[in-house]
């Protein structure tokens, strides 16, 4: 299913045609004469830590203690030994870890009942901030109360720590209680420039936060049950108005006041709405199918077949993952909740849908099934925009993909032509890349 494909293409083209101000990166690639490593040292004495990764700029090496309580950060010393001759006779010190890395600090992050999520780390390269996460143990059989999704586990406490990597100072923290956020491989959190999208799987809410230069995590908006900031106020005011009207009718009624009062309370308690984001999605699908036919009879038949027949399937879709396309548009991945597979990486092998959501207008501007040809073509042409944390990162200009490198594109097309099924290629390739 596809709607407003040109809108999505314009989103990507706008980013390409308007480079960020102050960017002075030469797009032409050249080879320069450099000192490059030509010798490998084995059996190096390393600390008993769990090493995570280097930061994108190569300035810091992130690691955690074996009990996942402490954060240990190292700085590479880079060139340590150099020889001109072919036979290298390095001193014994060369097999020590501290010959190549200097420990900056060790910071305790997790409390006694929490552990650091070793697979989660985001780096704000502009300010050299690091975002880490700690959490308590999962509760797999947690009851689905307060609007929670059945089958999704619960975590009593999830804490995000914003830390300045230069000196290890914890600048701010954000706590989520009795919720579930998929922290493995950063799947439940996406960073774009200074904006952070956090997906609550348990309560189907997208939290948008901003990372200020001062080091504060500021709430921007929450997308889920409500889409606009005043939606909750409007609905509460309307429900109070209806309750006052119902009470006035009860006083005017000559029937049994007790029975009518009980019946009225039951109606109010059972009166529930679909979430705001789900209403936007259903409205977009309905309007798209409505505009496909001009004949009234054919339009009704088309709605029965494509919308009403699958209405409950659309209602049952839940948000799996979210990422930014730019500062205003989100790419939201929807899927079914069958078996609770949405909380694991195996969920990528199940049918899913992708929606493009405009946060400013609160509208769905495009909706695709994961096997749609149009979505695959967009991914082929604008691959970099589906996984880049920010177009402002200068190093992104030098990363090859099939969207900016003709040789990579030829390789992709060769794989596509050799495959026995085009849909299988699209399915396997896109599910590994989109929203990953």
UniProtKB/TrEMBL annotation:
GO terms for molecular function: ubiquitin protein ligase binding; ubiquitin-like ligase-substrate adaptor activity. It comes from Populus deltoides (Eastern poplar). PANTHER family: DET1 HOMOLOG (PTHR13374:SF3), DET1 HOMOLOG DE-ETIOLATED-1 HOMOLOG (PTHR13374). This is Light-mediated development protein DET1. One of its GO terms (cellular component) is nucleus. InterPro entries: 6-hairpin_glycosidase_sf (IPR008928), De-etiolated_protein_1_Det1 (IPR019138). One of its GO terms (biological process) is protein ubiquitination.
């Amino acid at each position: 299913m596809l709607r407003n494909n040109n809108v999505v293409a314009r989103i990507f083209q706008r980013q390409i045609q308007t480079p960020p101000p102050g960017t002075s990166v030469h797009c032409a690639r050249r080879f320069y004469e450099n000192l490059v490593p030509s010798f490998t040292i084995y059996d190096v004495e390393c600390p008993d830590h769990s090493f995570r990764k280097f930061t994108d700029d190569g300035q810091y090496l992130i690691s955690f203690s074996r009990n996942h309580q402490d954060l240990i950060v190292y700085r590479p010393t880079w060139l340590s030994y150099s020889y001109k001759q072919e036979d290298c006779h390095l001193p014994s010190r060369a097999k020590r870890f501290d010959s190549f890395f200097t420990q900056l600090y060790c910071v305790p992050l997790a409390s006694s009942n929490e552990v650091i999520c070793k697979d989660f780390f985001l780096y704000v390269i502009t300010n050299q901030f690091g975002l880490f996460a700690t959490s308590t143990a999962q509760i797999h059989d947690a009851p689905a109360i307060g609007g929670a999704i059945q089958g999704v586990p619960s975590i009593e406490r999830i804490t995000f720590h914003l830390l300045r990597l230069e000196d290890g100072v914890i600048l701010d923290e954000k706590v989520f209680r009795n919720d579930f956020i998929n922290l493995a491989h950063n799947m439940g959190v996406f960073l774009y420039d200074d904006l952070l999208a956090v997906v609550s799987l348990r309560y189907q809410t997208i939290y948008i936060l901003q990372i200020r230069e001062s080091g504060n995590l500021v709430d921007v908006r929450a997308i889920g049950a409500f889409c606009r900031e005043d939606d909750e106020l409007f609905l509460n005011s309307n429900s109070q108005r209806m309750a006052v009207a119902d009470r006035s009718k009860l006083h005017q009624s000559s029937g049994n006041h007790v029975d009518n009062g009980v019946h009225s309370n039951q109606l109010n308690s059972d009166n529930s709405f679909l979430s705001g984001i789900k209403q936007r999605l259903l409205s977009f699908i309905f309007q798209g199918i409505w505009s496909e036919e001009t004949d009234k009879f054919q339009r009704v038949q088309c709605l029965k077949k494509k919308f009403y027949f699958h209405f409950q399937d659309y209602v049952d879709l839940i948000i799996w993952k979210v990422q930014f396309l730019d500062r205003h548009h989100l790419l939201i991945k929807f899927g079914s909740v069958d078996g609770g597979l949405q909380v694991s990486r195996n969920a990528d092998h199940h049918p899913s849908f992708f929606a493009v959501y405009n946060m400013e207008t609160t509208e769905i501007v495009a909706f695709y099934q994961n096997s749609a040809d149009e979505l695959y073509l967009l991914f082929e042409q604008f691959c970099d925009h589906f996984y880049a944390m920010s177009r402002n990162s200068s190093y992104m200009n030098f990363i090859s993909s099939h969207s900016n490198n003709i040789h990579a594109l030829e390789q992709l097309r060769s794989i596509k032509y050799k495959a026995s099924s085009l849909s299988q290629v699209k399915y396997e390739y896109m599910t590994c890349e989109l929203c990953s």
